[in-house]
Design brief:
single chain, mainly alpha, binds protoporphyrin IX containing FE
Length: about 300
């Protein structure tokens, strides 16, 4: 019943925000980022989709992603593994040995198997920050605070490094936005594999929603994405009316569902069960890599 719902054990829907206000964005970036996603759970899926579409839209990334065949053959597993590995690092951190560090080492080893352009790493990490902030600002149930913006920047700076990025993310949000605009203007371009992978991703995303909504899912999702990303994927940006309807619907959904209460049923668990009916272990996630991860020396920050 609604009356028995709690947030961090309190009946106050703003409990996570109150907690965030007591934390330091530099020292507690991981905890704040976790609380932020719990508060903006409904729309966090758009950030994940944005990340995948970004990878499809930049040929320097889409060529590598298409060469592995993974996103074309096993898109559901890639989506779930990405979310699980990212979530494990976010939940446990990497300061000490354990699940979080194991997850980070898996991702680091996978990335070391490929010749990835350092700027693409910066773009991907920066994208995670900007998608999270912008979608929450535009579609979320409450305002985003400066503490959260800064914590996201700090957290993803560390995450990008431990996942194998060699160039630090821009050191301020203002510089991140400047880098992002320039990257999207200069690095996105259509190539046939972009469209193939984007279509497979969008077909998969549909399956996360009830069947009667399937025809609406792609327009609703694309309406929220940057027009340069949509265009470079070979897709069409929905018109102004669809964009307005999409925004209104997601805002409504976010108002109805967020902030999710303590122990609320998690749609992600059902998806994990679909892909891993017998459960999963961190070592089994991701693609096999013949390359070892970097030495653990730098795993100290989050
Ligand atoms: C901060 C930046 C990045 C993050 C957070 C990130 C995240 C991840 C995660 C969590 C996985 C493991 C999940 C899975 O098994 O699919 C993964 C795998 C992978 N990532 Fe990244 N990644 C980043 C940057 C990049 C970039 C720039 C590229 C360039 C193409 C890339 C290419 C790959 C490839 C090829 C795999 C292996 C899976 C496959 O073969 O498709 N990643 N990444």
């Amino acid at each position: 019943m609604a009356t028995s719902r709690t947030w961090l054990g309190s009946p106050d829907r703003y409990a996570r925000l109150r907690k965030i206000r007591t934390l330091d964005p530099e020292k507690n970036s991981r905890e704040i980022t976790q609380l932020f996603y719990e508060d903006f759970m409904t729309i966090s899926i758009f950030s994940a989709i944005g990340g995948f579409l970004l990878g499809d839209a930049a040929p320097s990334m889409s060529r590598i992603l298409s060469s592995t065949g993974e996103l074309e053959k096993r898109v559901a597993k890639r989506f779930v593994d990405t979310a699980l590995l990212g979530r494990t690092v976010l939940q446990h951190g990497v300061k000490s040995a354990g699940e979080g560090r194991d997850a980070a080492r898996r991702v680091n080893a996978m990335h070391r198997s490929y010749d990835i352009n350092p700027d693409d790493f910066v773009a991907f990490g920066t994208g995670q920050v900007i998608f999270a902030i912008e979608f929450a600002e535009r579609l979320g149930w409450r305002d985003v605070t400066d503490i959260e913006r800064e914590a996201l920047r700090v957290y993803y700076t560390h995450e990008t490094r431990i996942f194998g990025g060699r160039v630090p993310l821009p050191p301020t949000l203002r510089e991140m936005y400047a880098f992002w605009e320039k990257y999207l203007d200069e690095n996105l371009a259509f190539e046939p594999q972009n469209l193939r992978m984007a279509n497979l991703l969008l077909d998969f995303i549909k399956t996360l929603f009830p069947k009667f909504l399937h025809p609406l899912v792609t327009p609703i999702v694309l309406a929220q994405m940057d027009h340069r990303i949509v265009k470079a994927c070979g897709l069409e940006l929905p018109g102004a009316i669809t964009r307005e309807v999409s925004t209104a619907l997601i805002r409504l959904l976010s108002k109805l569902r967020d902030p999710v209460y303590d122990n609320a049923p998690d749609g992600f668990d059902a998806l994990i069960k679909q892909v891993y009916p017998d459960g999963f272990a961190i070592e089994g996630l991701g693609t096999r890599s013949s390359v070892k991860p970097e030495e653990d020396g730098f795993f100290s920050d989050i």
